[in-house]
Amino acid sequence: MQTRDRHLRLPASAIAPCERASSLSEAPVSIHLRGVGQTFAGARTREAFVALDAIDLDVHRHEFLGVIGPSGCGKSTLLRLIAGLLQPTEGRVEIFGLPVSRPRDDVGLVFQRPTLLPWLTVLDNVTFPARHQRGRVSSAERRKGLDLLEMVGLEDFAHRRPPQLSGGMQQRVGIARALFQDPDILLMDEPFSALDALTRDEMSIELLRILTARPKTVVFVTHSIQEALLLSDRIAIMASRPGRITEIKTTNLPRPRSLDTLTDPNFSRMADDIRRHVFSKRKVTE
Ligand SMILES: Nc1ncnc2c1ncn2[C@@H]1O[C@H](COP(=O)(O)OP(=O)(O)OP(=O)(O)O)[C@@H](O)[C@H]1O
Predict the structure, then answer these.
(1) Is the pLDDT of residue 130 over 70?
(2) What does the domain layout of the chain look like in residue ranges?
(3) Cβ-count burial of 5 within 10 angstroms (0-12 exposed, 13-18 middle, 19+ buried)?
(4) Residue 262 and which of 121, 160, 173, 222 are 20 to 30 A apart at CA?
(5) Tens digits of per-residue pLDDT, 14-47?
(6) Atom of ligand 1 nearest to the CA of 86
(7) Domain ABC transporter, which positions (predicted)?
(8) Is the distance from the beta carbon of residue 49 to the nearest atom of ligand 1 less than 6 Å?
(9) Which of 36, 45, 77, 244 has the most ligand 1 atoms within 8 A of CB, as the residue to mutate?
(10) Angle at 145 between CA 123 and CA 149, to 5 degrees
(11) Rounded to the nearest whole angstrom, what is the distance from the C-alpha of residue 43 to the centroid of ligand 1?
(12) Whose CA is nearest to atom 5 of ligand 1?
């Protein structure tokens, strides 16, 4: 409990019950994929490999969509397509109604490892997007960077360098950096998977708090059913060969969520249901 509270930076009043779940399907669509396919040319055999096939997906404004599925089913590829790091070989990917042809400033990315610059301070890493774009960081931007560090519980570490921080702390810096430009959309690719189990739970709760203060549309790739259920409004379940979405489940767990949510009887029911679904698809395809 103590460990968790250490990072509580939002007043209790900010953690109001979240009403978005009921109205999500009526919210405007932020991310829109239709008939999306991704085929890679094989490196050695030159044989084409269909990594993703016929993906249809709408993610609504301020929705938290978890993406889960076996290794190699195309979860990261899906995220890279939405991020504009990759162009689909079939179909279309749109953000706010516009085709995605390159990475956008209003889309933040968080990866498994935060790729911080080890020679810069924590604060300089968080404000790096400003320096990268304009070659300088204004005092207002430094203030904003410090506010974000406070939000993720790292205000006392602003002038340290990344190698002096634990893995969980570095990931917090990565999240603060992704939030620096206040993106509308946050794409997260197994952001907590390199962390130990306790830190991982702690980070999930922290992410929920951050999103309560600064709502975002989130696509969150994970291998953890527990993590997906704790965080998501809906969970897209994927299968491989070819990579595809086989089902999208709505998580009807009340918000605000906390570690107590893990003991909700509905939680274990839904976890079993998702596990069964993932497992049945694996048996068919392997
Ligand atoms: N640039 C590429 N060239 C060729 N094949 C690729 C490329 N990128 C991904 N792949 C292949 O596409 C498939 C899907 O990869 P992807 O990384 O998206 O899966 P994933 O579901 O994220 O896997 P994991 O859970 O293990 O991270 C894999 O078989 C991978 O080898």
Answers:
(1) yes
(2) 116-182
(3) exposed
(4) 173
(5) 333 344 545 677 789 999 999 999 999 876 667 8
(6) 1
(7) 31-265
(8) yes
(9) 77
(10) 75
(11) 13
(12) 40
At 209-229, the pLDDT tens digits run 889 988 999 999 999 999 999
Tokens of 141: 């931007």
Which residue, chain included where needed, has tokens 């516009």? 98
Residue having the nearest C-alpha atom to atom 1 of ligand 1: 40
Chain segment 52-95, per-residue pLDDT in tens:
999 999 999 999 999 999 999 999 999 999 999 999 999 999 99
Counting ligand 1 atoms within 8 A of each CB, the residue from 76, 80, 192, 281 with the most, and so the one to mutate, is 76
**Cβ–Cβ < 8 Å for 245, 238:** yes
Residue in 117, 223, 219, 215 with CA at minimum distance from that of residue 173: 117
Helix 139-151 to helix 167-179 angle, to the nearest 10 degrees?
Answer: 130
Q: Ligand 1: does its nearest atom lie under 6 Å from the Cβ of 199?
A: no
pTM for the model: 0.87
